[in-house]
Amino acid sequence: MIRHVYQHRVRYRECDPMGMVYHAHYVDYLEAARTETLRALGLPYRELEAAGIIMPVVALSLRFIQPAYYDDLLDIVTMIRELPRARLFLDYEVRRHETQELLATGQVTLCFVDRARNRPIRAPKVLLDVLQQALAPSLSTDGQPKRSCLPK
User: Fold this and answer.
1) Structural domains in the chain, sorted by start
2) Who contacts 15 (Cβ-Cβ below 8 Å, separation ≥6)?
């Protein structure tokens, strides 16, 4: 599994009159976390787009458990559990950094589209290569298999 943590400090303008983060902002948090996960893997979105590949969201779900508040530092954890074929599935956890309290969970599904033809395509090789490398088992210092993941 690939796991990446993106941090975001809640801004005043993201809060509703009740003092909690307005629910729609969580979609932005997940997008930023997804973009930074790919960048940390060495494949910025910009490179995919320059190659004529776009990745529209085809499904999104969020489950709210506890509210986030102004000035909270959030850890948005992105998890990629499997190699994509025609779709990329991402799981998310939003946690309050100081306590690691789980605030929300989410799932996003992206597909791959050839921008020029506006047609769905299979996962691009460059993305598969990057994800495969990150998911590849390696040996720890004691010789036991382990899964590599991105630094927290």
Assistant:
1) 2-128 (3.10.129.10)
2) 21, 22, 69, 70
Q: Identify which of 48, 36, 18, 39 has the alpha carbon closest to the alpha carbon of residue 125.
A: 48
SS3 (DSSP) at 34? helix
Please determine, for residue 121, whether its predicted confidence score (pLDDT) is greater than 70. Answer: yes
pTM strictly above 0.85: yes
Contact 150, 2 (CB under 8 A): yes
Residue 88: Cβ-neighbour burial (10 angstroms; 0-12, 13-18, 19+): buried
DSSP H or E stretch at residue 126 = helix 125-135
Integer Cα distance of 12 and 6 in angstroms: 19
- Helix (H) / strand (E) element for 87: namely strand 87-96
Tell me which DSSP letter residue 86 carries: S
For position 49, what pLDDT does the model report?
95
